[in-house]
TrEMBL record:
Coiled coil: none annotated. InterPro entries: GPCR_Rhodpsn, GPCR_Rhodpsn_7TM, Olfact_rcpt, OR51/52/56-like. GO terms for cellular component: plasma membrane. It is found in: Cell membrane; Membrane. GO terms for molecular function: G protein-coupled receptor activity; olfactory receptor activity. Belongs to the G-protein coupled receptor 1 family. This is Olfactory receptor. Pfam families: 7tm_4. GO terms for biological process: cellular response to lipid.
Length: 316
């Protein structure tokens, strides 16, 4: 199953890894993961459909929420083929080009998700700081431009990764440590110098996730400063309450990401199962929980989803 270690070769395929130590539990794991995929894809698709169908949800906050749902469906669909292929069919072998494509889409949609979370924090700041001009500042064309900018930035930053990996010679093992293809795994396979790839990967992380998270913190510092200037306690409570769902989404995204980063650097000798579970939490939990949180905490979204299944009443 491994590749030769003493000479360069053309890498035609790689072998993925399930959850170490739980190979005998694939039946149970397949039910758990398939349920998570259904909840993530259906839940986020319902949010997108509700925002599209309900004129009451054609506001900046809900349009950004719809963008977030798109990125989370993208992440889920990107990992689904290999994860369920392993759990259902023991299909560990993946074409190398297909692996590079999966890596590109996983990282691109993750980058887009980070950008959308930043845009949503700006949305909350504008809504609280200048509520009277909220819809005139965040107009539909401006929101579309922000969405396109996030998409183009993510694609442009992630496109060099598979291209550079494709150019390298391979002579080490061709076994990856996850059920899906990640840049941090693939960069371990070449037998050539990967310093450029490592520097580029670090620069992308700092330019996207690092900068986005910093700007989100700055946004909430400004939001808190604005809220403290509101005279009534009830007004302060209502203003902060509009941010609860977004704060949960930010924590669900960045806390597991930080956990994965710490594990890779400070706990390299931890059980492989721990590394796999941390990565799985980072990729799978936000798409599953975000639509649930927004549906529970945001009444217009909940009502919009209910309206999708409500029969149209004829006007008499």
């Amino acid at each position: 199953m491994g590749a030769k270690s003493n000479e360069s070769l053309d890498l035609l395929s790689v072998f993925l890894t399930g959850i170490p130590g739980l190979e005998a539990q694939h039946g149970l794991l397949s039910i758990i993961f398939f349920t998570m995929y259904i909840v993530a894809i259906v839940g986020n698709s319902l949010i997108m459909a509700a925002v599209q169908a309900d004129p009451a949800l054609h506001e900046p906050m809900y349009l950004f929420l719809s963008m977030l749902a798109v990125t989370e469906v993208g992440v889920s669909v990107s990992t689904l083929p290999t994860v369920m292929g392993i759990l259902w069919f023991d299909a560990y072998k993946v074409d190398f080009d297909g692996c590079l494509a999966q890596m590109f889409f996983i990282h691109t949609f993750s980058c887009m998700e980070s950008g959308v979370l930043l845009a949503m924090s700006y949305d909350r700041f504008v809504a609280i700081y200048n509520p009277l001009r909220y819809t005139t500042i965040l107009t539909l064309p401006r929101i579309i431009s922000m969405g396109l900018g996030i998409t183009l930035k993510s694609v442009a930053l992630m496109a060099p990764l598979p291209i550079l990996l494709k150019q390298l010679p391979y002579c080490h093992t061709n076994v990856l440590s996850h059920s899906y293809c990640l840049h941090s795994d693939l960069i371990q396979l070449p037998c050539a110098d990967t310093k450029l790839n490592s520097i580029l990967g670090l620069a992308i992380v700092l330019a996207t996730f690092g900068l986005d998270s910093l700007l989100i913190v700055v946004s909430y510092v400004l939001i808190l400063y604005t809220v403290l200037g509101i005279a009534s306690g009830e007004g302060r409570r209502k203003a902060l309450n509009t941010c609860v769902s977004h704060i949960c989404a930010v924590l669900l995204y960045y806390v597991p990401m930080i956990g994965v980063s710490v594990m890779h650097r400070a706990a390299k000798h931890a059980s492989p199962m721990v590394h796999t579970l941390m990565s799985s939490i980072y990729l799978f939990v936000p798409p599953v929980l975000n639509p649930i949180i927004y549906s529970v905490k945001t009444r217009p979204v909940r009502q919009g989803i209910v309206n999708l299944f409500s029969p149209k009443r004829e006007l008499r």
